[in-house]
Design brief:
The complex is a heterodimer of chains A (419) and B (443). Helix content of chain A is 39%, strand content 17%. Chain A is built from 15 helices and 16 strands. Chain A has a 9-stranded parallel sheet with strand order 4-14-13-12-11-10-7-6-5. In chain A, strands 1-2-3 form a 3-stranded antiparallel sheet. A two-stranded antiparallel sheet of chain A has the order 8-9. Chain A is globular. With 443 residues, chain B is α/β, with parallel strands linked by helices. Chain B has 2 domains: 237 residues, Queuine tRNA-ribosyltransferase-like (TIM Barrel), CATH 3.20.20; 81 residues, no CATH class. Chain B is 41% helix and 17% strand. The chains are: A alpha/beta (419), B alpha/beta (443). At the A-B interface, helix 1, helix 3, helix 13 and helix 14 of A face helix 3, helix 14, helix 15 and helix 16 of B.
């Protein structure tokens, strides 16, 4: 494999854990970069859900890296092979850096289909089984800038047996070695980076083992898998992530899969995670909700409390997730308002006061409520614009907070809105 | 840009500005309307003549010397509209999946909202609070609202017509709604549309017998009630709708009566249902023969490309139809040679855009193959096709208009038909006949 051009330049490491910096050397020309901690742009087959280029580009703070997943792409392998010029060109994504993951982070897969040699993905036509050979053939066709190695992550369910967890670690390492072998011998993948995947379920020893072993391989960075569902409480998650990160080199990025809630993001950044998948705004959109949590740490404490009281009036009485972990990722959180609710039918304020997104500049809650009640497609478009802008705004604020040593303030503010 | 008296004026004119230009250039502006015999309507016209500004001015820019086609500038309160014009339909205060910015970016100057649907959800009181439908959906150009009349046909199982009005049973909650001419106009006054349609007694074009005549006469009586009920004549234009089914005598009777009323424009209604195309075009051309030249003619429910081109030749200025936007959501892309079913297997590996000559955002960036695949994964696929189809319709109308202005509309028609059909024996009989009636011979 050609010398890794992806480089993590850290400018700050707080309390030996949370890192602030830039991931450079990205893309075909190695000119692109992604601020860290950061979030990838979540897509369905290269399209941000509901959005065309015009509506997408009303959002100004989009990350430079677009995520696509094999679960959407695998069934189109033949078409892409005939196209020859790679997925980015096929999808009309001109400038973006392309990262290819295995699964769609917004959807939990059915379990029980993984074997020693294969993993399965689900496309529109049903289940497709991937061997390493097929997995790598897909990568050669997609031609991403970087991808995660094939992995067995089917350990997110609670009460996965120790034996099963051990198997997932072993298989994932084997898959990684096989992928790397093919990668090193593929001209089509020259300059493309590979991330190793750390497994281990909820078992500390297996997590450590997986991390240690994966770190020995020549990978450009690490995906942390198996933390997807709500069945693991945050304390355990943090403990396991910290243990994993202790085994990983400082100078390579860590991407946490399947975690998107703002409070969880903050906890994981504190534990040393650099990158997240940006699927959370999509899930919020699908339930007709709008992100509204405040991440502005520039207000003085008194004004902040007043503002918080105002904001909380919105979320009072709505379905809220309590402190218990919840397996259902479609459950509404207290970081959002539910525009389906009748209370919004004559609320002429924007979704979030002061939000500069296209939706908030042009439309009101009452209109969004009407669109949802009448089942209109525009609801998804407008909510996706707002939720994307808000979420990526949160990541900007997160980096700001790290830079000005206000992470604690941000964390308190976000937690307050959760509880 | 609107070219008017050889000066380029910005296309957006406020009502005040429009009236100022109108007053300053009375000679160049064709005057509206004839004074009616009816005393009540006499008083109406007097009131209108005295009132500050006409909310509609039609300036005929060019007339085809061969057909009955015209190219006009229709000045409405929110902006000027170039005709012939196709008006996309945004039934519930939105064009499905498209933002107002995207719609404006395609050059749309006027689109439709529906009184029946919006009257039910969210209701006129809320829309009034939101500063009218313009304010509610944040649309800066013009709006035309249908009266709810067509729902009498489309929701016929749920409706009952009396002299008073239409009684609907709501499909959402089973409640009964009474839509009278007064109620329809009241809702449309709340919506604040630039053009309002009268409530007409609509029967399906496939219905025959005395019901058709009854509906025609009732529509005239309802027109008068609508005119009387219009609380906003200075800002909102009320159009009459000519009925009479497929019966020439009834149509003519309706035309004779309705043209006595001083309304700013006329629609040709009751067509574009399941009737024979051969009957359809004869009713259209009969109507335009008897509608005043200096008022806009709106043919309701027409949107297929061939229909648009032919009916422009027959003298119509304005059109609306759900077809282009609805068919888009099923993956059907409109092109100069017909349509392309993007979801069909044959496009899975077709790496060309939908139409290589199309300048719309979809065709400039995406291939048929990508859109084909995207239909399996995300709703955005529908939006891409919707954008393309709206662009197609608007571009078609712009080209038609330009050809009329440049005096080459008949050639345009011939080229258009050649492109659309594989050979002359594929040309629809009715279209050949209709065009022949206005002196255009196709090969």
């Amino acid at each position: 494999m050609a010398g890794s051009r992806m480089k993590l330049e850290l400018c700050r490491v707080a309390q030996g854990r949370s890192r602030l910096g830039v991931l450079t050397g990205l893309g075909r020309t190695s000119q692109q970069s992604l601020d860290v901690p950061g979030c990838l742009l979540y897509t369905h087959f290269g399209t941000v859900p509901h959005l065309t280029q015009d509506t997408l580009h009303t959002v100004s703070n989009l990350p430079a890296v677009t995520q696509v997943t094999l679960s959407h792409i695998a069934e189109h392998q033949e078409v892409l092979e005939e196209f020859k010029d790679g997925f980015r060109k096929f999808a009309g994504l001109h400038d973006t850096v392309l990262y290819c993951s295995l699964h769609d982070p917004a959807v939990l897969c059915p379990t029980g289909y993984t074997t020693n040699k294969t993993v399965s993905v689900w496309g529109s036509g049903g289940r497709m089984e991937l061997t390493v050979a097929k997995f790598m053939a897909l990568q050669k066709t997609v031609q991403p800038d970087w991808y995660q190695s094939m992995a067995d992550g089917e350990t997110w369910q609670s009460n996965t047996s120790r034996k099963r967890v051990r198997k997932s670690v072993d298989r994932t390492l084997t898959h990684l070695d096989e992928c790397l072998l093919v990668h090193q011998n593929s001209q089509e993948l020259e300059g493309v980076e590979v991330f190793g995947v750390v497994e281990g379920g909820d078992i500390l020893e297996e997590r450590v083992r997986s991390a240690r072993e994966t770190a020995k391989r020549p990978v450009a960075g690490f995906c942390l898998d198996g933390f997807q569902s709500g069945s693991m409480d945050q304390a355990l998650k943090t403990q396991l992530i910290s243990a994993v990160i202790k085994e990983l080199p400082e100078d390579k990025p860590r991407l946490l899969q399947g975690v998107g809630r703002p409070d969880e993001v903050l906890a994981c950044v504190e534990a040393g995670v650099d990158l997240f998948e940006g699927f959370f705004p999509f899930q919020v959109t699908e339930r007709g909700c709008a992100l509204c949590f405040d991440f502005d740490v520039s207000l003085d404490p008194e004004r902040a409390v007043l503002k918080l009281n105002d904001d909380q009036k919105d979320t009072v009485g709505e379905t809220q997730q309590n402190g218990d972990p919840c397996l259902d990722q479609t459950q509404m959180t207290s970081f959002e308002i539910n525009l389906n609710d009748k209370r919004y039918h004559d609320d002429f304020r924007p979704l979030v006061e002061g939000c500069g997104c296209y939706c908030c500049k042009n439309h009101q809650r009452a209109y969004l409520h009407h669109l949802l009640v009448t089942n209109e497609l525009l609801a998804g478009v407008l909510l996706m614009i707002h939720n994307t802008a808000h979420y990526h705004g949160f990541f900007g604020a997160l980096r700001e907070a790290l830079a000005s040593e206000k992470l604690d303030v941000l964390k308190r503010q976000v937690i307050r809105q959760r509880d | 840009m609107v070219k008017w008296l050889n000066v380029d004026w910005p296309t957006r004119l406020s009502t005040a500005a429009a009236s100022r230009y109108a007053q300053n250039n009375m000679a160049a502006v064709v005057e509206r309307g004839t004074v009616a015999n009816n005393t009540q309507v006499d008083q109406m016209s007097l009131k209108k003549a005295v009132s500050a500004a006409s909310p509609l001015t039609l300036r005929i820019v060019a007339e085809c010397s061969v057909t009955k086609a015209r190219a006009c500038d229709l000045i409405l309160p929110h902006s000027a509209v170039s005709t012939p014009v196709f008006m996309p339909v945004g039934t519930q205060g939105t064009l499905k999946g498209i933002t107002v910015d995207q719609l404006e970016g395609l050059g749309c100057q006027i689109c439709l909202g529906n009184t029946y649907h919006l009257g039910m959800r969210p209701g006129p009181e809320l829309i009034t609070k939101a500063n009218g439908l313009h304010g509610f959906m944040n649309w800066k150009n013009n709006l035309l609202t249908d009266s709810g009349g067509f729902q009498m046909v489309s929701l016929v199982e749920l409706s009952e017509v009396t002299e008073e009005g239409v009684k609907f049973k709501s499909p959402y909650d089973g409640k009964e709604i009474h839509l009278s001419p007064e109620k329809s106009i009241s809702i449309q006054n709340s919506l604040g549309s630039d053009i309002m349609m009268q409530l007409d007694d609509v029967v399906s074009s496939t219905v025959t017998g005395p019901r058709v005549e009854e509906a025609m006469h009732r529509s005239i009586r309802w027109l008068d009630r609508c005119i009387a009920a219009n609380g906003n004549p200075d800002k909102q234009n009320l159009f009459a709708i000519i009925q009479g089914g497929l019966n020439a005598e009834l149509r003519k009777a309706c035309l004779d009566e309705m043209t006595k009323r001083d309304v700013p424009g006329f629609a040709i209604g009751g067509l574009s249902g399941g009737e024979e195309k051969d009957d359809f075009w004869r009713m259209v051309t009969l109507s335009t023969d008897h509608l005043p030249r200096e008022k806009p003619r709106y043919l309701m429910g027409v949107g297929y490309a061939v229909d648009l081109v032919v009916c422009v030749a027959l003298g119509c200025d304005m059109f609306d139809c759900v077809f282009p936007t609805r068919t888009a959501r099923f993956g059907s892309a409109l092109v100069p040679w017909g349509s392309l079913q993007v979801k069909h297997k044959q496009y899975a590996k077709d790496f060309r855009p939908i139409d290589p000559d199309c300048q719309c955002p979809t065709c400039k960036r995406h291939s048929r193959a990508y859109l084909h695949a995207l239909f399996k994964t995300d709703t955005a696929a529908m939006h891409h096709i919707t954008i393309h189809n709206v662009a197609y319709q608007l571009t078609l109308m712009r080209s038609v208009r330009q050809s009329i202005i440049e005096g080459r509309f008949p050639e345009f028609i011939r080229t258009f038909m050649k492109r659309m059909f594989e050979s002359p024996d594929q040309y629809p009989r009715w279209a050949v006949d209709a065009l022949a009636s206005v002196h255009v011979t196709l090969e």
